[in-house]
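Next up, a chain.

===
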Amino acid sequence: MAESYKVADLRAKSEDELKSLLVELKREQINQRFAAATGQSENTSHVKVVRRAVARIKTVLHQSKNRAGAQTSAAKS
């Protein structure tokens, strides 16, 4: 998973797809952490890429949740 995750691509995905991708990246993050701790990690910069991808996904999920909440409260008014 050495691909970069662009925000526009993430916003095009559904919430379920984002959540499953988040789970995958969390698993990869754990594996990278173990590899770094045991000295087996060859590409240490990949840890940073995965960490930032997780943050981007969480941000997009949070923004979509806030946007949906704002739309329902505006519809009630």
